[in-house]
Design a protein that fits this description.
- The structure holds 2 protein chains of 2 kinds.
- The mean pLDDT of chain A is about 90.
- The longest helix of chain A has 16 residues.
- In chain A, the strands form 2 sheets. Chain A has a 6-stranded mixed β-sheet, with helices on both faces. A 4-stranded antiparallel β-sheet of chain A has the order 2-1-4-5, covered by helices on one side.
- Chain A has a single domain, classed as 3-Layer(aba) Sandwich (Rossmann fold).
- The two termini of chain A are about 35 Å apart.
- In chain A, about 35% of the residues lie in helices and about 25% in strands.
- Chain A is built from 9 helices and 10 strands.
- The radius of gyration of chain B is 26 Å and the shape is flat.
- The C terminus of chain B is likely disordered.
- Classes of the chains: A alpha/beta, B mainly alpha.
- At the A-B interface, helix 2, strand 6, helix 3 and helix 5 of A face helix 7 and helix 8 of B.
- The structure holds adenosine-5'-triphosphate and magnesium ion.
- Magnesium ion (MG) binds next to helix 1 of chain A.
Chain lengths: ~250, ~290
């Protein structure tokens, strides 16, 4: 149920330099409400940098970012307010080590959304139960498995009801047997209509859940398309090479 | 998990018996060696030609009893100074450390100032700071301040110096918090100060408790230096008694009291460090 009327997230001419080094090289993309867009590309192609720029925890060198039509990269826009509307989950070290799982989830609800304590707590509990962690609310992050940590980190972002959720290779630091439970959660979010832009190395998963795939190469969009079509009929040489390299692993 | 109630194999029983025997043996060995060592030191000291005179003028029981009230009164002043200085040091140390993390250009002068301050007072001997503050500030003749008590000047000097040390400890703690913790906090929409206060500092403070305890122990000794400003603390009190009896025993007494005061803190610091390191790496101690 993608709403094609107007893009939820729109990135125009995004560039990012680290000193002289050009990491993002003019990227344009759109993500529509309910759509899942997968970013793939070899290591160092700029996937993480792109996501961080969208969230603006990294300053842009050039370009614009629109969220529901509002230019959130415009000068004077309160970035903290915007970040609260864009969820971002990293590979690892997402959860705050000094807080219980429950308090990890309630922290931003209380201090950013100004929700009262009890309400935040019951909201967090209901999310935790939904992902089968209802009895782990009082545990600390280092006392639960990596897969549980990542799922908790994802629902911590989702509980803020972001307009778009950015996932940066959320399974790549996990043991293979823990990957499945995290992917299941993302499938569930998709069926709930969450809008997601995700960098991933899990190509078969991208093919299954993503509606659109973007192949990033040296900071530029090299090829993109409908997920199934993209994986079945890649057109350009580097895409073909990348896909066969990934498949042979 | 309680292994004691479980059936154990014969092999394990043998191992345990052996270990028990070894433990008993090592207790006896350490006891014997301690006694031997103490005896050598004791008789060695007693055998020195000047020992009788030293005993008279440093370990005189009657003088110690006479001097006790004044020295203990002074120690109470030291304690009050310690508590006041420790609280102020924590506050200013943390403040300096946080100022050091502010990257925005507006804060440039503040950051440079904080850095310069820390460099200056980490290098400057405490005793010089004490003299400068203790005699410099009254020398300004700020009438509205009235006459500032020596212990207040002492607190100021200790705070000035120790804030510099402690800010370095906090800075290291802040830097040791993984950068993605800060990014995760910001990406949830927490502001810079919220993520500092709610995410980074609580984790940083936990990591620096052991080194902070060391600075606290050092401070506990250094409060004795306020005596140079004329505050009647334990050291100054002892000095008065020394002059009265022409006997050095009050110094020994004051020293002993400082050590007694420090021991609980030192033990506590050991225990905290041990707990911290055991949490970081669980495993056998070899
Ligand atoms: N803070 C930084 N300073 C300088 N260069 C950086 C910085 N962060 C990233 N880079 C460089 O930018 C390039 C893109 O990095 P990025 O992490 O975005 O790649 P990626 O596609 O996410 O790779 P991976 O699949 O390994 O996560 C890399 O060459 C990296 O070295
Ligand atoms: Mg990356």
């Amino acid at each position: 149920m993608i709403d094609w009327n107007s893009p939820r997230l729109k990135v125009v001419g995004l560039k990012k330099f680290y000193g002289e080094r050009q990491v993002i090289n003019g990227v344009d993309l759109e993500v529509f409400p309910g759509q899942i867009v997968a970013l793939i590309g070899s290591s160092g192609s700029g996937k993480s940098t792109l996501l961080r720029c969208v969230n603006q925890i990294e300053d842009l060198t050039d370009g614009q970012i629109f969220l529901d039509g509002e230019e959130v990269s415009a000068p004077g826009v309160d970035q903290d307010r915007i970040r609260a509307q864009i969820g971002l989950v990293f590979q690892s070290f997402n959860l705050f080590g000094h807080l219980s799982i429950l308090n990890n989830i309630t922290l931003a609800l209380r201090h950013v959304k100004k929700m009262d304590k009890d309400k935040a707590k019951s909201l967090a509990m209901s999310w935790l139960s939904r992902i089968g962690l209802g009895d782990r609310g009082d545990s600390y992050p280092d006392k639960i498995s990596g897969g549980q940590q990542q799922r908790a980190a994802i629902i911590r972002a989702v509980a803020m009801e972001p307009k778009v959720l950015l996932l940066d290779e959320v399974t790549s630091a996990l043991d293979p047997e823990l990957v499945g439970e995290v992917l299941d959660l993302i499938r569930e979010l998709k069926s709930g209509g969450t809008t997601i832009l995700m960098a991933t190395h899990e190509l078969s998963f991208a093919r299954e859940v993503a509606d659109w795939v973007i192949f990033l190469e040296q900071g530029q969009i090299y090829e993109q398309g409908e997920a199934v079509d993209f994986f079945e009929n890649p057109k350009l040489p580097r895409t073909i090479e990348f896909l066969s390299r990934m498949r042979s692993r | 998990m309680d292994l004691n109630n479980q059936e154990i194999s014969q092999a394990e029983q043998k191992r345990r018996d052996y270990r028990k025997q070894q433990r008993k043996r090592s207790v006896w060995i350490s006891l014997a060696s301690t006694l031997a060592f103490a005896a050598i030191v004791w008789f060695g000291l007693l055998a020195t030609p000047g020992w009788d005179r030293v005993e008279q003028s440093f370990f005189n029981w009657d003088v110690a009893v006479e001097a006790f009230p004044r020295v203990i009164d002074g120690l109470l002043l030291n304690l009050r100074v310690l508590v006041a200085a420790a609280i102020l040091v924590l506050f200013f140390g943390l403040l300096l450390a946080v100022i050091g993390t502010l990257k925005a250009p507006v804060f440039f002068p503040l950051r440079v100032l904080a850095k310069g301050y820390v460099d200056l007072f980490r290098g400057l001997p405490l005793i010089i700071v004490l003299y400068l503050v203790g005699f410099g500030i009254p020398g300004l003749r700020l009438e509205f301040l009235g006459r500032i008590p020596a212990e207040v000047l002492g607190i100021a000097a200790l705070t000035i110096t120790y804030s510099a040390y402690v800010s370095e400890v906090f800075r290291a703690g802040i830097e040791s918090v993984h950068s993605s913790q800060r990014l995760a906090a910001r990406s949830l929409g927490l502001s810079y100060s919220q993520s500092m206060r709610l995410v980074v500092l609580p984790q940083a403070v936990r990591k620096v408790v052991p080194p902070l305890m060391n600075d606290f122990i050092a401070l506990q000794k250094d409060v004795g230096l306020i005596s140079v400003l004329g505050a009647i603390d334990a050291v100054r009190g002892a000095q008065i008694e020394v002059a009265k009896f022409a006997n050095f025993t009050p110094y020994v007494l004051a020293g002993l009291l400082f050590v007694l005061l420090a021991i609980p803190t030192i033990r506590l610091a050991d225990r905290i460090s041990a707990r911290f390191s055991s949490r970081e790496q669980q495993g056998v101690s070899l």
